[in-house]
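Homework help board

Subject: predicted structure for assignment chain

Our instructor gave us this sequence and asked us to write out the predicted structure in token form, then describe one feature. I got the tokens but I'm not sure how to describe them. Can anyone check?
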Amino acid sequence: MIPVPINNSHSSGKVSGGNDAGGLVGNGEAMNVYCSYALGNVEVNGYANVGGLIGYNSNGRLLDNYAAGSVNGGGGASVGGLVGRCVDGSMYDNYASGNVTGGNSSYTGGLIGRDKSCTVSNNYALGNVNAGAGAHAGGFVGLCVYDPGTCGISYGYWNSSADQKINNAAVDIKKGVGEGVDDTYLTAKTSEEMKSAAFTALLNEHKSADTLKLWGNVSGINNGYPIMTLNSPAEAGTVAAVTPKTEITVSGNTVTASTSTTATVDSSGKATASVTQAQVNEIISKAVEEAAKQGNGAAVVAEIKVEVSAGAKTVETDLPKMAVDAVAKSNAEALTVSTPIASIMFGKEALDTIAGEATADVKIAASKVDPGNLDQETKQAIDDRPVFNFSVTSGDKTISQFNGNVTVSVPYTPRTGEDTSAIVIYYINAEGKAEIVSNCAYDPATGTISYTTNHFSTYAVGYNKVGFNDVSANSWYAKAVSFIAARGITTGTGNGNYSPDTKLTRGEFLVMMMRAYGIIPDKSPKDNFADAGSTYYTGYLAAAKRLGISGGVGNNMFAPERKITRQEMFTLLYNALKVIGQLPEWNSGKKLSNFSDAEQVASWAKDAMTFFVGSGTISGSGGKLSPAGTATRAEMAQIIYNLLSK
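My token output:
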């Protein structure tokens, strides 16, 4: 029985399994595949034939196909960007754009892993090639053996701008390292050369006579590299039809470009979704384009939305390493991965960390955790509320510490009677104990609680209602005081009191502000202010001096017991938020000159006061800023609440 040809077919989900695994076809024995493509990542451990489109092609013909996902195989595997292993078949006018990774002693190639007696003409490969020790690896083909003694490749091209490694060491593997390799018609070209009109013309010159298509470059598709179009280079054909739509939203001074992908859920409740290089390139370019239209230095955020059916306990999003690198190198200030379990936003510095440490494709996972494994004290603090684990991995490496901020939002429905100001996030430390995350806030509009961190581990939703004898439930500051007390930012002034009307000292302000944003005090400071003493604020003063949050009031003095003025307070706050990269967005439209006493602001405080007026943090009273006025503990609580709950 002759297999029915596969024509104009495609797939987009992640593929994993055993032997002969491909993005579209696992075993393609005597099977012809025309005008088809696969977008999902393919990942198989151990010995296997693994390809972006087809795992094993025997006596079949491939014409006008492509694969865009990353391909990963284990030790001894035949791993190719398009085909894992090709025997006695033919391949014309195909390309692969994903990264290819093989294990030790594997056969790993950008287009084909292992080729025996196949006719391969007018194809190209774009992605990185990374293989283990003892591997046969090549930018185009890993190992090629042709019966007459020569490799049957003509007009084959590989991307010399891509990273190519064997056993994590950069090498020249353009020819592959197997016997019988003839690279007479195997040509290295840079990325720019492969995007050029000259390269497209070269492909059309040597294309198969059996295809009615032409190679062409289509804006916004395949990152500028040539594709096979229907009738002319001006038509994108089926490629355009499958490019996920990019959604653009503008909020304040931030432009967000979003793409979506659908996850598949296995029997254990693990959902896996793949994102292609093309999708990431598209959202970056569209976001930058829209930001330019907005002007005023609009911030750019790239977002990946993962659609998952109900019941998933874990959602893992796979991104090609090149895609992560592209976001990190772009003008984007953040990358957000949104799933039903959590929304995770990686800031610029955190993205740089991931891009710098990743050795292979990146997996970002959010999981719901069984609280039964926690100790009794921690269980009591959480009281059956949701527990989560977050991770970033690349190959066998876990990336858990970030040199920058990651903002996480998780869904939570408050129980009857819960004060939303007292809903908190706990970090479960290495000893299994719950520690309050101070900079968390619940948003009733979205039904989520968000927090910012620089490391991933296990986190849980908790409830920590703290009351004070001198704070009545109907006072204007009650919600704010409850908010900062629940997060351990304040423990009050003793005897169950908060002392809301007491004037705030410089030491009190600095400690509460630094606690609010998780700025850790120095334990054994070598350099401190002369009046730091040995008290609750000593380590905080040292950290503030070291980080440049405060230079003191002169003569190496901080004056911690002196009452703090409003302009001192906002200057310290401005310096601290600038250091940790958490200054709020400028969105009020107000100016310092709008206030009648603007000229009373000291020169050293103008930058801070101007910024907080513009962000809406300072609204003034009676048209005045009162920069030299002092602040109460109640006012301080309200300022922290306003900033953290936005």
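Reply (TA_rk): Your tokens look well-formed. For the description, you could write something like this. The mean pLDDT is 87. That's the kind of observation they're looking for.
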